[in-house]
Design a protein that fits this description.
Strand content: 25-35%
Oligomer: single chain
Strand order of the largest sheet: 2-3-4-1-5-6
Radius of gyration: 26 Å
CATH architecture of the largest domain: 3-Layer(aba) Sandwich
Structural class: alpha/beta
Largest sheet: 6 strands, mixed
Number of domains: 2
Distance between the termini: 86 Å
Order of helices and strands: HEHEHHHEHEHEEHEEEEEEEEEH
CATH topology of the largest domain: Rossmann fold
Length: 381
């Protein structure tokens, strides 16, 4: 309270051009500049604590920046913390009425807003129920429908699509594309690389509140995955479970590079605290983890002894189009099918490269985004 009163008094009596940090404080967002034009979507990427949500709160006016300035031409709406600001005692319909009143809408405009919200949210009779009875998915539907229904010039979205069913997520993505086409602007925070690349033309990567990378959405996601991948291996687990994956690797069967259509060997090194029967398997994903290209599972129970060991398998024909992919693996207890350890599920897995000699067909496959090469009998004899 003392610091707050001193800051308010100091600002009123003697503006401070560059505030000083007190012991233990840090800049949540520091020295960040960017522009966003009409019809553009900018992705904001970064780990937890990078400053993404703080940035959106400043842009929406919930937090005042200590230095610098924010200029927004037009009106902004935000989905920063789903359901934040909603009175749980009010019904969904009353919540729309309150939002309309706050935005200065008349009776006829409010009626049209309610019609748009009801049509988009598809809550049916639930919109007449108190919001305390809403699930997180229902709140997401109402919040997004209300924000887009108010027809802002700028939409600030912070993980709004992390909840809700796939149908509604696709509906929101399609609506945001139409919003951009009509000249709106979007700042989009998401931990989902696929959504960022699907919606945004540009993106920035934040680290400890500062700009770490800026480029196209694809370039920024690629840079982020490179940074997260590190050495390209590691366990999702903290090391205190009954089994820990110490290393995951993939290479050509001879130990060298991985060739398209050639054999590849996967190796998983582990440390087990006890003797147990297990099953294990792997998935090969696109680099952004959006699509599972292929995979395999050994469903026959296998007994492993306590201590360090190695699991290995060979893919005789890894028929992937040349490019970068991500490998993840998991070990399950055979009797209960409970996962004992995993790599690449909650943390980035192993990024690896499939190679092939340059050629007309190979270039065409890569250009159109083909992932798998299929053997075809064209019927010529």
């Amino acid at each position: 309270m003392f610091y707050a009163l001193r800051d308010v008094a100091g600002e009123a009596l003697r503006p401070i051009p560059r505030p000083r940090l007190r012991p233990g404080e840090f800049w949540a967002v520091d020295d960040l500049s960017f522009q966003l034009g009409a019809g553009e979507a900018l992705g904001i990427l970064g780990g937890n604590g990078a400053g993404k949500s703080t940035l959106l709160k400043m842009l929406y006016g919930l937090i005042k920046p200590d230095r610098g300035e924010i200029r927004i031409r037009g009106r902004a709406e935000a989905l920063i913390e789903l359901g934040a600001g909603f009175n749980p005692a009010l019904t969904g319909r009353e919540t729309v009425d309150v939002a309309a009143a706050v935005n200065g809408l008349g009776r006829a405009e409010t009626a049209r807003l309610l019609e748009r919200v009801e049509d988009f949210a598809e809550l049916g009779e639930i919109i007449g129920a108190p919001m305390l009875s809403y699930s997180s998915g229902m709140r997401a539907r109402l919040a997004f429908a209300l924000a887009i229904g108010l027809e802002p010039d700028l939409l600030l979205i912070d993980e709004a699509l992390a909840v809700g069913d796939p149908y509604f997520q696709r509906k929101c993505m399609n609506m945001m594309h139409r919003f951009l086409h009509d000249g709106g602007s979007i700042l989009f925070v998401s931990h989902n690389p696929h959504q960022v690349q699907a919606l945004c033309s540009r993106a920035i990567l934040l680290e400890s509140g500062r700009l770490a990378f800026e480029g196209s959405a694809v370039e920024t996601v690629s840079h982020m995955l490179d940074q997260q991948g590190g050495g390209g291996w590691g366990s999702d687990d903290e090391g205190d479970g009954p089994l820990v994956i110490e290393r995951l690797s993939i290479a050509g069967d001879g130990g060298g590079s991985i060739g398209s259509g050639e054999a590849a060997r996967l190796t998983l090194r582990y440390r087990s605290a006890e003797t147990t029967d297990i099953r294990w398997g792997f998935n090969i994903m696109t680099r952004d983890q959006a699509i599972c290209v292929t995979g395999g599972s050994d469903m026959a129970p296998m007994r492993i002894e306590a201590g360090e060991g190695e699991l290995s398998c060979v893919v005789p024909n890894l028929s992937l189009v040349p490019g970068l992919y991500m490998l993840r693996a998991a070990v399950h207890e055979a009797s209960s099918n409970v996962r004992l350890a995993g790599c690449g599920w909650t943390r980035p897995g192993l990024i690896f490269k499939v190679e092939a000699a340059p050629g007309l067909l190979t270039n065409a496959q890569m250009q159109i985004g083909q992932l798998v090469v299929t053997d075809v009998d064209w019927g010529r004899r």
